[in-house]
Amino acid sequence: MKLIRSFIQHRNLITKSTINPKSINLSIPENVNSLILLTTPKQLNPLLKYLSQNNETFLNSSKLENLIVASTDTICHSRNAISELWIENNEIINIKNIEKTKKIENKSKLHRQLEPLSVDPIRMSKNWKDIKYDGNININFINLNKNIKANLACTLFENNNYNTCFIIKKGLDNEINGQNLSNIEIEINSNNQISNINYSNKLIEIPLVEDEDLRDEEYQITSFESNMIKSINDQSASGYLIDNSIVTSSKKELFFKLYNKDKEIEKFNEEFYSLVAGGLGWGEKQAFLVVDPIVGNVGNRFVKLYYNKIELKMPKIESKDKTTIQLEVSELEQEFNEVEGKVENEDTIIINNVFSIGSENGIILNGVNHRAHGENIEIEI
Fold first, then answer.
1. Coiled-coil annotation: which residues (predicted)?
2. Nearest by Cα to 145 from 184, 192, 185
3. Residues 288 and 317 placed together within one structural domain of the fold
4. Which residue of 115, 264, 285, 358 could cross-link 330, Cys pair, CB 3.0 to 4.6 Å?
5. How far does CA 81 lie from the centroid of its chain?
6. What is the DSSP letter of 277?
């Protein structure tokens, strides 16, 4: 397959993603001085080898002043991909809030940590690599008024680091340059504007009550404690699920949409939070419903109930005419698979003008948590 590598010039942000690369060969556009380079864990070692072999071009380049490399769970729905964001010379990039990764002396001590306000919840879905040792990448597009925060991928099975993220920056303290980082914030002040935002998810609404005469009612949290809902419309919160045959007959992950009735917001700003169970069933812990602790206080907001239909397909991502930032809440990876020797028959796909970030643990966009697997946001610039 012949690969066509192209960049549309005269854009302040130049983006491209590559799925199933057989080999890595980065083409540096003209008039750039910074590169944010994301990779899925399966392409991490080939990428690091490529950067090492091209040390003079990338790591010690007189042209590139900033190189940021980080590993995320998915890119353009793929677990075998890289994504490039090049920043032109006339744009301002600032790197701050850098934290070095603490060494993991004994990996056997890593374990899931329970949140104190969630009555020792057992989540409805568990991840084989779900360990409470989070690293983050935060990209703040100042002129676009968009702040993106995502967890770094677990790379324990690739290089023995829980996550992988590093920067090479001219003039930066050598104690940080090239060192593995757990947190990094990048500010980009570019001369761009947002033209459109596309949003989709895999959430299907379930009637909170099965009585058709009551389905049009609005349901409001009337008593709560932090992330624990005691009552809805002054009725036991857990009772709504215990009496719901759709819920009791299904093992699908459940979500509450929390909203304020009189406040209009865009679809991509809606807040969905998964429900977690305490004890042996709904309501065993004082008849509470426990929402994802990340919500903080649920408040007296209105609620709608949804389930996550994972079998729905994610929207296809193709090359764009406009520079696009694509964000996704990745599906859970079920097991570790070696990529070597298994992708020879997969076509390499070049997706021009798309920079992609995907995380199983969710994406935070301007403070709004997106945590439902299958959520997809495309910001066209």
1. 322-349
2. 192
3. no
4. 358
5. 15
6. B
Residue at token pair 């040390």: 55
Expressed as residue numbers, the domain containing 63 is 13-198+313-380
Residues 347 and 278 in one domain: no
Which pLDDT score is estimated for 121? Answer: 39
SS3 305: strand
In this structure, how many other beta carbons lie within 10 angstroms of the beta carbon of residue 31? 13
Spatial separation of the C-alpha atoms in residues 232 and 235, rounded to whole Å: 5
Predicted confidence (pLDDT) at residue 1 exceeds the cutoff of 70: no
Alpha-carbon span 34 to 325, nearest angstrom: 17
Predicted confidence at residue 173, as pLDDT, reads 66
59 neighbors 27 (Cβ within 8 angstroms): no
* Average pLDDT of the segment spanning 71-83: 97
Q: What are phi and psi of 138, to 5 degrees?
A: -125, 120
Same-domain pairing of 221 and 254: yes
Instruction: Evaluate if residue 103 carries a pLDDT over 70.
Output: no
- pLDDT at position 110, please? 45
Q: Which of 25-34, 158-167, 317-326, 332-341 has the highest mean pLDDT?
A: 317-326
Cα(367)–Cα(219) distance, rounded to whole angstroms?
Answer: 25
Domains in the chain, number: 2
CA distance 112 to 123: 11
Q: How many CB atoms are closer than 10 A to CB 102?
A: 10
> Are 114 and 137 contacting, i.e. CB atoms less than 8 angstroms apart?
no
Which of 308, 323, 353 is where one domain is finished? 308
Residue 1 lies in a domain: no
Choose the final residue of a domain: 258, 282, 308. Answer: 308
